[in-house]
Amino acid sequence: MNHLVVFVMLAVFLGMTSLVDAADKKVIIGFKKGAVASEEDRHHKFSRAGGRVKRSHRIINAISGQLSEEEIEKLKNDPDVAYIEEDSVVGITEPTLLSTPLTQEYAESWGVARIGGNAAAAGGITGAGIKVAVLDSGIDYNHPELKGNYKGGYNFAYDNNDPFDDGYISHGTHIAGIIGARNNGTGVVGVAPEVSLYAVKVLGGMVMGDLSDILAGMEWAITNNMNIINMSIGAPIDSNAFKDVCDRAYQAGIIVVAAAGNTNSNTIEFPAAYDSVIAVGATDQVDAHPTFSNYGQKLELAAPGVAINSTMRGGSYGILKGTSQATAHVSGAAAILLAKGIADANGDGRVADDVRALLGSSAADLGDIGRDPYFGFGLVDLSKALTPQPVTYHYTVARTIGSRKDNDLTVALKPGVYTVEITNHGNIDLKIHAVDANCFKEIGHNKLNKRHEKHPHNYNYQSHDATISLQVAIGDSGSISFIPTGSPGSSADIVITSKIL
User: Fold this and answer.
1) Which of 301, 319, 270 has its CA nearest to residue 3?
2) How many CA atoms lie within 13 A of 97 on its CB side?
3) Dihedral sign of CA atoms 317, 217, 326, 294 in order
4) DSSP character at residue 112
5) For 253, how many CA atoms within 13 A lie in the half-sphere containing its CB?
6) Which residues, 6 or more positions from 366, have their beta carbon under 8 angstroms from its beta carbon?
7) Half-sphere exposure (CA, 13 Å, Cβ side) for 337?
8) Is 136 a catalytic residue?
9) Cβ neighbours of residue 267 under 8 Å, at least 6 residues apart?
10) In what order do the strands lie in the sheet with 150-155?
11) Which is it for strands 478-484 and 429-435: parallel, antiparallel or unpaired?
12) Containing H/E element for 179?
């Protein structure tokens, strides 16, 4: 995805003269839960303050428009107002157009093949029936690779029903092709070549747009029951309204995927940094971290983002790079898993969290063991995700003479459910500590000593065999530590097995 740069609105921007009074500001006003709930009441409060309404948001309790500085200051003291934010203008940094494409779909779509898109297609899993909203500069819905999968959308940048891509670099069309270009024997192919694509145009011709338009696009996706929202956009500025609408989408069971950013920064941009969003970084052809890709603890997954060949406006093709492109690969992979079908493991009535967990647990670990700042849980691997196998880890811990810390064992774990079997050898006193985990419980009739009250995931285990289960929460990296403190010479064999998701 290509990095979004946030600009403060100026009276003149790129030669376009603002018609707004110099004293007015474009703002988004969020109201507290239960306050000013109706659209009519929001309009009334905004208009009464002398403001000009642009849009009343329906999923989040907010309104956007233009208001004077004086009235903004007054509204900050209004007990009904939760926040007032500037309606920023956002835009993507220009990616590099490297070359004209060749043919041979999967050979040319190296990123799609690298994450196992060809394996999914060979198995007859194409993303059919899954709805993906592409929040971007629009889609060239006449492109031969896309017109069969294009199902509609809306243009929030210009408030009309034609979300055609007028972006000067065909950004939205390029993203749509990575997700769902048809497998038709020519050009390129997408990860999910029979997915349903919806163009939600929130960026204009210069691939910039108001945050309020992006919020409206998210609300459209929620209202129209999208399965996946692809946001190959981002900004370095946090927003209450942006977080709120992303959280609402996730609560509605929608998989939300966004780009980490392209500034070689150690900070993941928003909305990718929100917990409700999958943050995606880029990899190159040798699975290395490219210098432009942002990194940090919030990074969740990595996917191809260098020299990516895809569709361009006017029926053409082109090669771009960025975390925008990486994001599109993850959205396509999520569509494949949804199309295959996945169990609702926690019984919450949704499978978005289960898809997210499977993408993480099946990813190819490229950096440090477990989650790391440069690759997250690793490179998306559809081949493994479509045929998950239990993974078993074997360890032995022993109490020796010397420093106790030399005997400690810590195992890093991806999101998922694990069985931990402990077999005692000798009089061992083993402390077990789980980090970033829940559902740490005994299985069957094996008994562990009482957990430490201040540390509910701490157990003491003494001189008997035991089997416990451990679940690492979605979006987290987890670890389990075994600390032997018993008699020197005592030991325990530990077998950790992942559950098939």
Assistant:
1) 270
2) 12
3) positive
4) H
5) 13
6) 283, 287, 302, 374, 375, 378, 379
7) 34
8) yes
9) 236, 261, 273, 294, 296
10) 150-155, 196-201, 131-136, 228-231, 255-259, 278-283, 301-304
11) antiparallel
12) helix 171-180
Which three-class secondary structure state does DSSP give residue 329? helix
- Respond yes or no: is residue 403 known to be catalytic: no
pLDDT band at 74 (very low <50, low <70, confident <90, very high): confident
Residue whose C-alpha is closest to residue 418's, from 449, 443, 452: 443
Tokens of 317: 């093709």
Neighbours of 53 (CB within 10 A): 15
CB 64, CB 27: distance < 8 Å: yes
CA angle 403, 409, 414 (to 5 degrees): 155
Q: Is the pLDDT of residue 5 over 50?
A: no
pLDDT digits (tens, 9 = 90+) for 174-230: 999 999 999 998 999 999 999 999 999 999 988 888 999 999 999 999 999 999 999
**Residues 402-422 pLDDT 10s:** 655 667 888 777 767 788 888
Q: How far apart are the first and last CA of the chain?
A: 29
The residue with tokens 């490297």 is 98
Task: Calculate the CA dihedral of residues 36, 42, 47, 48 and round it to 10 degrees.
Answer: -10
Coil, strand or helix at 246: helix
Catalytic one among 239, 324, 362, 490? 324
Q: What are phi and psi of 214, to 5 degrees?
A: -65, -40
Q: How far is the C-alpha of 388 from the C-alpha of 394, rounded, in Å?
A: 19
Q: Which of 56, 57, 64, 136 is catalytic?
A: 136
Domains and CATH numbers, the chain: 4-92 (3.30.70.80), 105-382 (3.40.50.200), 392-498 (2.60.120.1030)
The C-alpha angle 355, 348, 269, rounded to 5 degrees, equals 50
Given the residues 3, 57, 143, 171, select the one marked as catalytic.
171
What does the DSSP assignment read for 59-108? Answer: TTTEEEEEEEHHHHHHHTT-TTEEEEEE--EEEEPPPP------S-HHHH
Q: What SS3 state is found at 280?
A: strand
Count of C-beta atoms within a 10 Å radius of residue 156: 25
Token readout for 161 is 């029903």
Coil vs helix vs strand at 279: strand
